[in-house]
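User: Predict the structure for this protein chain, please.
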Amino acid sequence: MLKPIPEKQPASGTGDEILDGLLGFMVKFRKIDQMMELARQGPKQGERGYMFPWVMNLDPYVLNGRWSWWSEAIAMGKLPDTPIPKLDFTDQSNGGKKHIEKLMDQLAAKGHVHTSLEYILDELLWGLGRPMDFGSDKTVNRIKEEPPRELFEGSRKWFIENIRLDILIQDHCDFWADLIAENKGKSAQRTGFFATPMSICEMMARMSFIDPRTPGFDWKKQAVQTMSDPCVGTGRTLLVSSNYCLQLFAQDIDLLVLKACNYNLMMFAPWGICPGKGLIKELDEENLKQPEQVTKPTFTFNNSGQGSLF
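Assistant: Here is the predicted structure, written as structure tokens:
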């Protein structure tokens, strides 16, 4: 159940400046046209984006001010003076996985065994304002205008009454990867899924990026670098890379893992879900140095059937 929102204490900037910068950007570039009003007036439960104000208000407490930092960057059109707020991502779930498993068990008892996990993800993405679907042209990053189809009469009301966003937002762990791997192993799905341990993702990130303790280290030069994962899965490499750089691109062939990746980025790495290209001076200056195919991701399936996340 969604608890009352605590008094807002943004990490930097005023609440109105942060909201105007971030949500104004989302309205213009992501067509989430109702987000501004939802955040200002208070969302009606069940409407698209009704969970997002909770994320913004809990951000300073449990997300190290990541949403506030990024919305300030967008509002100013340049990187803030402070480095990227870091989060420690772990392999061990801190309650989030058990909470989702409990919801899945309840849905299974109602006869929805193989559809429960994706339904919960769809409801979460709808509530966060980032629902995904295939468009008529097979576009993956399509914003749905309709809520997820209910599994049974009243399933959305059941979801709102039982979901614990306060548990999920404090769990800096990609527990979705474990749930999807276990779920696929029990069903006759055409694709398997084997997630890279978060510790290995962290090791690769440290090998790829400059150690901040290096003499003369300039965090802004590293922040504008690009991380691209062609088989992103649930986004673990992007999550750990979000501590180092701001330009995150990804692809995968499986829509279910892309939904989990969208959730992870929406919750923990806003520059992955709301790119700053064309809005942040330092990013544009860096992209002018790069080949166009690197800085311009595709939005549809290519000839081999690979779907793009962004």
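The mean pLDDT is 77.
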